[in-house]
Specification:
single chain, 267 residues, Rhopdopsin 7-helix transmembrane proteins, RTA1 like protein
Length: 267
């Protein structure tokens, strides 16, 4: 989009640090290599999606570095919108991977389907994915409604709030699903049965709980700053409360043996 006001949208929105953006982009490169390798060695939905997530984050942090360091990039509204869109699209993959992995691990136990209506709803992958897609679409539309003078319309703000709320609710549901699985495992003392399997399989429950906590931290901060976009994008908060929880969660997913193979999902 043209910029008749010569506004540096990146600096105005809180994007300033080139080195930190580059560091995060570089940190994602070995993670991308790991998940691409796992996608061939142990092909699963989770590995495929996390490979895509890492690639998206490398691109996003590359764009963010350009926005912070180059005036021509910072004054390009389309580039800033691209950064915002990649952020929402990427989190879709991260959250859905967490949700899918918990359901896959529960499926591997061979337990009967729950009778509780609430648990059946939380286990509906199609509904969860549809809600996630709705949140992403709302976020994308909100970002594209940014005016060339840097302001946002009431419609854009409303769509952004709706997207954030949906993401928060789904993140809470994913954490709830994880707690249900952990409670079942503890009750049956399954965590002590597999001393001969991989580290990831033996310690799946605490790892999944930590992943859920990291995702909750990210979304809790986003929701807490729902009416203050400038504070939300302030790098003093954005990196430790959004970027860091994401990369830590992805690193935990790289624990060997955490994600089961497809042939392990049939009890």
């Amino acid at each position: 989009m043209s910029n008749p006001y010569h506004i540096n949208y990146a600096h105005w929105s809180g994007i300033h640090s080139v080195p930190v953006a580059i560091i995060f982009a570089v940190l994602y490169i070995p993670l991308l290599g790991w998940f691409v390798r796992q996608s061939f060695a142990r092909p699963t939905y989770v590995h495929f999606v996390l490979s895509l997530f890492c690639a998206i984050r490398i691109a996003a942090f590359g764009i963010r570095a350009a926005l912070a360091g180059l005036d021509s990039a910072g004054e390009n509204l389309s580039l800033l919108i691209a950064d915002q869109v990649l952020s929402g699209v990427g989190f879709f993959g991260l959250l859905y991977s967490a949700y899918t992995l918990v359901l896959d691990l529960e499926q591997r136990t061979g337990r009967p389907a729950p009778t509780s209506p609430l648990l059946r709803i939380t286990r509906n992958r199609h509904a969860f994915r549809a809600a996630l897609m709705a949140a992403v679409v709302l976020g994308i539309v909100s970002a594209t409604l940014t005016n060339t003078d840097g302001s946002t319309s009431d419609t854009s703000k409303s769509l952004r709030k709706a997207s954030i709320i949906i993401f928060l609710v789904l993140t809470i549901l994913q954490a709830f699903q994880t707690l249900v699985l952990v409670r079942m495992e503890v009750a049956e003392k399954n965590t002590n049965k597999h001393s001969d399997v991989s580290f990831g399989a033996r310690h799946a429950m605490p790892i999944l709980l930590l992943v859920s906590l990291l995702l909750l931290v990210r979304e809790a901060f986003t929701a807490a700053t729902i009416n203050n976009g400038l504070k939300q994008n302030n790098e003093r908060f954005w990196y430790p409360l959004i970027a860091l929880p994401e990369i830590l969660a992805v690193t935990l997913y790289a624990t060997p043996g955490l994600v089961p193979r497809r042939d392990e999902l049939s009890p």
